[in-house]
Design a protein that fits this description.
The chain is mostly helical. It has a domain at about 30-55. It has one helix spanning about 5-60.
């Protein structure tokens, strides 16, 4: 790597700009992934609450033999 100083400075600045652009893209992607993860967790919590509510309702009603679950 026998670059002259101005060439080296130029290449380093270009590399730094590319690194900053990649860091920004990763940050945006990470935020989007985190939002999707939070949505998924909230949906699963709602599903669990519904299932628990259904289970609670069905356990208080007698089954076909008249027994409570």
């Amino acid at each position: 790597m026998a670059y002259k100083k101005p060439q080296l400075v130029s290449r380093l600045r270009t590399a730094l700009t590319q690194i900053e652009a990649l860091e920004t893209a990763l940050a945006v992607q990470a935020a989007a992934c985190q939002e999707q993860h939070i949505r998924t967790i909230l949906i699963l919590r709602v599903d669990v609450a519904r299932l628990e509510a259904q289970q609670g309702m069905s356990s208080s009603e007698p089954n076909q033999r008249g027994e409570r679950l």
